[in-house]
Amino acid sequence: MYVGYVIYCSGRDDSRAKWKRTKVGMKHKRDSKKFLKAIGKKLHALRTEQKKELESVAMAIKIRPALLMRIERGDYDMYLDLLFELCEYYDITPHDFLKDVEVDLKI
């Protein structure tokens, strides 16, 4: 059973690009949710370690506090640039942040 399709491009350049679609299974959806929860947990931990208020972090990166709360709960599928802004705010490289998240996922 599958959830839907993902469309992707195969080919190295535009002249040979072929668009294909592939089925996305439930496992992918479940793993993605687990990853978002781990990201949110790590962001929440960074904020509390640095003794920052939710509202002040949200204001600094120009998002609503409710959205930051959803991100920290793992209920929001955010864009990478938002994750990079949060990493910059917390003074951690995206590489180190994602490494920490990966370690949390393996435990």
Helix vs. strand class: alpha+beta
Report the strand count.
2
Number of helices: 5
Give the low-pLDDT segments.
1-9
Domain module tally? 1
| Widest sheet, order of strands | 1-2
End-to-end C-alpha gap: 29 Å
Name the helix and strand elements from N-terminus to C-terminus, one letter apiece: EEHHHHH
Would you write up a description of this structure?
The protein is an alpha+beta fold. It has a single domain (29-106), classed as lambda repressor-like DNA-binding domains (434 Repressor (Amino-terminal Domain)). It contains five helices and two strands, in the order E-E-H-H-H-H-H. It has helices at residues 26-49, 54-60, 65-73, 80-89, 94-106, and strands at 2-10, 18-25. It has a two-stranded antiparallel sheet with strand order 1-2. Strand 1 and strand 2 form a beta hairpin. Helix 1 (26-49) packs across helix 5 (94-106). It is globular, with a radius of gyration of 17 Å. Residues 1-9 have low confidence and may be disordered.
Please write out the topology:
Blueprint: E1 2-10, E2 18-25, H1 26-49, H2 54-60, H3 65-73, H4 80-89, H5 94-106
Antiparallel strand pairs: 1-2
Helix pairs in contact: 1-3, 1-5, 2-3
